[in-house]
């Protein structure tokens, strides 16, 4: 395919690319007849002739192919769920990786294009001048590789400079088509909730952008060390080396920052945000893609961030601080009991807890907050060198001032002059971190309670539970959670992620043990006697429990909940799926007749203080109702009704009870025990069981009579 592109390139064809396919800010700018700042569009806009429809860009074959290749990522149709392929295994992902390695090589130079002529080279679309220095990047917006010099023929151009136009073109197209969907003005408008979002990136889109970010770090870090002699530098630095020096701040930084800001503010609060998170963390850690290898050591200590990265951190301060605050606001609105959400908090905390990183971010904030000094022509000192009148032996103060100027230039260029900076290590953000730490503690306790409940449920569902003769729990509540379906291993991972995340947050923000202990105590105040069930935060009133704003937040995020349970007359609750409907109705009539006939006698028996009274109270009253009332915010009047002692035969309508009885009769027949004898044995066994339960549990079982 590329051979065909280069063949057409040699014949200098031009192709029309519709402006309507371009990202929103660029399209709007061209339609308003304002030339975009990016040099990619210079001398390419073609206005329609009379009667023509729409604007077009006149592109050479290489640009034309790369534009359509880049736009296919954001216009691709969703593939069917049955043919889901991992993005990293797709042909598109592999092609992007191949193009980046070819045109932005970390070793060597860009490979020359194949020539269809035995003795000739493929001409570039416009002549380049080798005399243009790359230091102008960051100060001017015109391309240094596409400057038209009418009087200079192409054959006299530097071959290296001829090659590099493809590298710059490829990078500009990728950045424009993948990241430039939000301008600064559009980003500010998007803060309003009434503005409809014009573009929604997909997870595959974000993964490809992350691949681009990782490769650009490796490409930039492959820059050769500067020679000590300035004269040697001027003769040996190639265009590719100079391109590596400016590729991230000149081409990527601003558009990626706005793209990330939009994703942090508009991406759904689910696990798919992990792709955006990893792209952000990849950009924050250029040292991971540096060519030097970390020293081998037997101790698994985290690698300290070198001081040589301080300049990168300072010139990308908002990437670290403002986006960290944005992540905090997202984390405070997510369910941290979910293992995937817990993993994201752990990943961010682990990255920011790298040794020396927090200190360098703090230093960058201090440089930004440094008061302005009235120094004439201060902006020129930023680019001053010894050959231009500067001195490396001068005092340290100008260097600090220039560093402060760089940080302020970075912040104000991205957010505007009236931007109110929120310090990452200030009081406001620290309070957000404390809230997150408190939520982590609550999520840990919730995960533990769910784990304990799951273990109890598994134990209660064992084979031998079929042989219980006590009535089944008809007041059982729904305690479902996503973790019930995930399993114990994931619950354990959640606890590990949250524990390590809390530890890293304490390292970053210097949280004391006393603060952690206080938070843990606050989290544990709502636990009941058995240390498992937690009620949402609420206050008691004469009408029952009333939720506080914190309690509503806990319920919405699944951190705590009330148990949903039936609190009316157990004899009148709906027929369950594990019950026989005809038997339920028949046994209800029989129980009602017995209760009506012997109500006075049962009342007298239950009022006795001897062993007979205790035995009757245990079996003829319902002590479970009062035990569970405190876990539901119902009106007190509804739970104060007293149904008195009564006989309940509904448990005999349960299929489990019926199958258990049939199984016992079947086993008894093997030992030649008839139905009458088996019934006598069952009644005797149950009587002994009732006596034992009365002796051991009457003391703590509540009753009503």
From TrEMBL:
It is found in: Membrane. GO terms for biological process: ceramide biosynthetic process; glycerophospholipid catabolic process; sphingomyelin catabolic process. InterPro entries: Sphingomy_SMPD4 (IPR024129). It is a single-pass membrane protein. The keyword Transmembrane helix applies. Keywords: Membrane, Transmembrane, Transmembrane helix. The chain crosses the membrane at residues 655-673, 679-697. It comes from the Eukaryota. GO terms for cellular component: membrane. It holds the Pfam family mit_SMPDase. GO terms for molecular function: sphingomyelin phosphodiesterase D activity. This is Sphingomyelin phosphodiesterase 4. It comes from Zonotrichia albicollis (White-throated sparrow). The gene is SMPD4.
């Amino acid at each position: 395919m590329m051979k065909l592109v280069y063949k057409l390139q040699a014949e200098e064809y031009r192709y029309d690319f519709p402006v309507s396919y371009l990202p929103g800010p660029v399209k709007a700018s061209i339609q308003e007849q304002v030339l975009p700042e990016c040099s990619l569009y210079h001398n390419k806009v073609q206005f329609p002739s009379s009667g023509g429809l729409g604007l077009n860009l006149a592109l050479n074959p290489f640009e034309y192919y790369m534009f359509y290749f880049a736009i296919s990522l954001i216009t691709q149709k969703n593939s069917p769920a049955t043919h889901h392929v991992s993005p990293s295994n797709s042909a598109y992902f592999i092609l992007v990786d191949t193009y980046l390695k070819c045109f932005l090589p970390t070793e060597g130079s860009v490979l020359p294009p194949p020539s269809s002529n035995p003795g000739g080279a493929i001409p570039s679309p416009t002549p380049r001048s080798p005399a243009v220095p790359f230091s102008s990047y960051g100060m001017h917006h015109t391309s240094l590789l596409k400057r038209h010099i009418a009087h200079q023929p192409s054959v006299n151009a530097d071959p290296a400079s001829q090659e590099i136009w493809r590298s710059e073109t490829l990078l500009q197209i990728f950045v424009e088509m993948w990241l430039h969907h939000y301008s600064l003005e559009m980003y500010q408008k998007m803060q309003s909730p009434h503005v409809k979002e014009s573009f929604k990136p997909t997870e595959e889109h974000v993964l490809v952008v992350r691949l681009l970010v990782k490769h650009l770090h490796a490409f930039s870090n492959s820059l050769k060390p500067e020679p000590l002699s300035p004269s040697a530098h001027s003769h040996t630095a190639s265009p590719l080396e100079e391109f590596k020096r400016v590729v991230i701040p000149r081409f990527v930084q601003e558009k990626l920052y706005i793209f990330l800001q939009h994703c942090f503010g508009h991406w759904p609060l689910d696990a798919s945000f992990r792709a955006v998170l990893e792209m952000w963390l990849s950009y924050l850690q250029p040292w991971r893609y540096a060519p030097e290898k970390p020293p081998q050591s037997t101790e698994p200590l985290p690698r300290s961030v070198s001081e040589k990265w301080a300049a990168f951190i300072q010139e990308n301060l908002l990437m670290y601080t403002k986006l960290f605050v944005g992540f905090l606001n997202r984390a405070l609105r997510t369910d941290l009991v979910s293992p995937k959400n817990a993993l994201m908090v752990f990943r961010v905390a682990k990255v920011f807890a790298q040794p020396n990183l927090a200190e360098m971010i703090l230093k960058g904030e201090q440089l930004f907050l440094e008061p302005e000094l009235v120094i004439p022509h201060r902006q020129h000192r930023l680019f001053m060198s010894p050959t231009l009148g500067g001195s490396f032996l001068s005092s340290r103060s100008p260097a600090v001032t220039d560093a402060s100027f760089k940080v302020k230039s970075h912040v104000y260029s991205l957010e505007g002059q009236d931007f109110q900076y929120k310090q990452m290590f200030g009081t406001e953000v620290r309070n957000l971190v404390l809230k997150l730490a408190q939520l982590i503690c609550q999520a840990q306790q919730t995960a533990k309670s769910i784990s304990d409940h799951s273990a109890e449920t598994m134990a209660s569902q064992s084979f031998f539970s079929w042989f219980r003769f006590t009535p089944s729990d008809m007041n059982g509540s729904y305690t479902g959670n996503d973790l019930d379906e995930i399993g114990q291993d994931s619950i354990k991972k959640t606890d590990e992620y949250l524990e390590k995340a809390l530890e890293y947050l304490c390292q970053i923000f210097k949280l004391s043990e006393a603060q952690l202990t206080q938070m843990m105590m606050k989290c544990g105040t709502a636990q009941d006697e058995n240390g498992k069930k937690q009620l949402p935060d609420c206050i008691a009133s004469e009408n029952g429990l009333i939720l506080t704003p914190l309690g509503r937040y806990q319920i919405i995020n699944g951190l705590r909940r009330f148990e949903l349970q039936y609190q009316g007359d157990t004899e009148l609750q709906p027929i369950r799926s594990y019950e026989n409907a005809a038997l339920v109705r028949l046994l209800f009539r029989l129980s009602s007749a017995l209760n009506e006939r012997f109500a006075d006698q049962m009342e007298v028996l239950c009022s006795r203080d001897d062993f007979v009274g205790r035995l009757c109270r245990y079996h003829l009253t319902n002590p479970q109702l009062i035990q569970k009332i405190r876990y539901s915010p119902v009106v007190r009047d509804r739970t104060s009704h007293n149904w008195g002692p009564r006989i309940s035969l509904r448990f005999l309508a349960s299929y489990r009870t019926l199958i258990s009885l049939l199984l016992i009769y079947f086993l008894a027949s093997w030992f030649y025990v008839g139905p009458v004898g088996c019934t006598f044995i069952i009644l005797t066994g149950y009587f002994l069981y009732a006596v034992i339960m009365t002796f051991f549990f009457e003391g703590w079982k509540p009753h009503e009579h």
